[in-house]
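Good morning N.,

You mentioned wanting to compare the apo and holo forms, so I went ahead and generated the holo version with iron/sulfur cluster. This is what I fed in:
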Amino acid sequence: MIKSIIIAGFGGQGVMLMGKIIAEAAMFEGLNVTWLPSYGPEMRGGTANCTVVIGDEPIGSPVVDFPDVVIAMNIPSMMKFEEVLKKDGTMLINSSVIDREPSRKDIKVSKIDANKIADTIGNSKVLNMVTLGAFAKITGLIKIEAIGKALEETFASKNKKLVDLNLQAVEHGMKSVTD
Amino acid sequence: MAIDKIVAQMPKSLSKIEFSYCPGCHHGIVHRIVAEVIDELGIASKTIMVAPVGCSVFAYNFFDLDGTVAAHGRAPAVATGMKRALPDRVIFTYQGDGDLASIGTAEIVHAANRGENITTIFINNAVYGMTGGQMAPTTLLGQKTTTSPYGRDAKANGYPIRMSEMLATLDGSAYIERTMVTTPQNVIKTKAAVKKAFQVQLKGLGFSMIEVLSTCPTNWGMTPIESMKWLEDNMTKTFPLGVFVDRTKGLI
Amino acid sequence: MKMLMKGTEAIAEAAIRAGCRLYFGYPITPQSELTEYMAKRMPEVKGTFLQSESEVATVNMLYGAACTGRKVMTSTSSPGFSLMQEGISYMAGAELPAIFINVMRGGPGLGDIQPSQSDYFQSTKGGGHGDYRMIVLAPHTLQEATNMMKEAFDLAFKYRMLVTILVDGMIGQMMEPVELPEWTKPEEFEEPNWALTGANGRKPRKVTSFDLDPYELEKMNLRYQETYKKVSQNEVKYEEFKIEDAEITVVAYGTMARIVKTVIDYARKSGIKVGLFRPITLWPFPYERLSEISKNVKNILTVEMSYGQMVEDVKLAVEEKSDVHFYGRSAGVVPTPAEILDAIKKIVR
Ligand SMILES: Cc1ncc(C[n+]2csc(CCOP(=O)(O)OP(=O)(O)O)c2C)c(N)n1
Ligand code: SF4
Ligand SMILES: [Mg+2]
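and this is what came out, ligand included:
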């Protein structure tokens, strides 16, 4: 099994971190992973994306032509990566920002009202973790325990409260995603 | 007021390409000042610019002038080559502090020492902006950067280098001034300084440089407003404003 | 325990664990994180981190530190590596051991900062002046890169040679789980008998790269050549992946090779038997083994993130025994699995 995910959005939406936590959680699930960021002028243009590959066999290419899953946090990202998403692949969209449907009909679409949910939790920044929860739920690739461990790894040295806040966001995302 | 005015009317010497600088970055303000001066002196058609490697690497495109990009730090040498080939053109370099005060010290020192008849606009923002906020030779003592994570320590990294003062000791330097652009008054002063620097070149008096203390809110981890205050409160202590050499008395 | 680490950081930590306590460097994308990691980490292990004023200074700081017989390293990316070439030539002539990490990006000139394999010639053929070589290692995963650090220092000291770890921006920027290597303590390391440490009663030692008498200089050069011959005989490394039954063998290194591994899966599913030959040492290049392989396969395809540099060595190895094809993209554009599969199909169909 090899699964590839492209996560894309605006600079401030935390897409890189989302990808990293997905990769790290998958590592804690005992899987192989690669995480590949876009960097440089692409980022200056205000959009950012990263590619995560997860597999139970060694991973060859960290570069992906046709991803299994696209997480689109804004409209330009949805339009850009819709074209390359695999047939029957999953498009997870942040419906707080994306007010339209992807045009392809041969893909599965899931939605998460990430900004709104993040606001109800009381911290708009965690919209990425809300989305991550939605991703975990619909793909079944990573479980909450592994995500918790990854959050611990990333935030614990800085601030224990951040771990809880982010984990809470993930749980909300898992509950709120619509297929 | 002055800033508003500058923003309102685009100088002819700037191209239509939108600046890619971060909000609150002073590169853009200085670009406008330089372009206005070139417009006012009516020299656009004979001016060639040499952009550096740094955030202002794109300046060659932001100015509607002939231009090139030099290798990191080598702009004064490239400008020298141009000036020697075409002595009646106006040649200026635009360089950051990593570019001019670190990798390019040999080139700037020798260009100044030769009295090379070029003008340098030097943007001192106390960090390497382009590459993500590493320590520059101009980084203040104690200042934290990604390569001085424990704060700049004089024992390990030496002291902030004062290029204007240093270059002013060379006989080839005709005019060197340090300014900032944090207030409308400062902008007006900087513009006068830049104008004088180009006039020095037009009169053939030798090397001229204007150092502008500038912000890098992104890598300083501050808001634009905070960074202006930090500049005024801290940078000006290590890098006092003023004219460090002026060999133009009575000539301009 | 495995840790998810960025390539630049994994390499830096592995170097420290291999006993390196002297790092000199100058920031440049896409490897500045390595420099930054060292800035933070070296003081923690009582090592030295110094940001130089330029890569020209860096390489000469390395020259000086290497003269003292310590484990020293730097890291840079293509334009910085170009600036280091003068010093590299001097260090090679002085037979100094040191490690260079070159995280390649698109060129020539200022180019861009995206992944590329544009410095193969510069690294393997001698970018500086004179008849010299440096050992060039090309890992294709972060784990391999991490494991290589100790080996790199061992090779450098065993042969008194420079070793370059040649990777691209992708290996520099990506994250992958790595198992960090065991610690080698600097104390476990014996001071070489040529190190300049202050004569203190013994006969003074000299480290130089010159002799104005051509016959004497020739002797020095012959000694270098002798070393290079030994390295070529003993240290060649490569990986063979599914080449036994291959109708076409791809030759690729570094990131390109790992992308090709995915292509091989795709291709085999669609009935095309593809294999991979991956040089791990780019210098010394595995000419002999590739020559043997080429006897049994009709087509060889070299894939690079350049417009064809390693392919020249592939041709030297293969001679006329099989057809050598080339596919490459440069300037920071990375060939994707689909593109490479197309290139393969064009050849076999
Ligand atoms: C030979 C070489 N070394 C390093 C770099 C990487 N580099 C690009 S810009 C830069 C520093 C820029 O800092 P500065 O000159 O202060 O300009 P700023 O971005 O702050 O305006 C460096 C080190 C390079 N391009 N070439
Ligand atoms: S990184 Fe700093 S110097 Fe560069 S554009 Fe942004 S604020 Fe300006
Ligand atoms: Mg700077």
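The longest strand of chain A covers residues 2-10.

Happy to go through it together on a call whenever suits you.

Best,
F.
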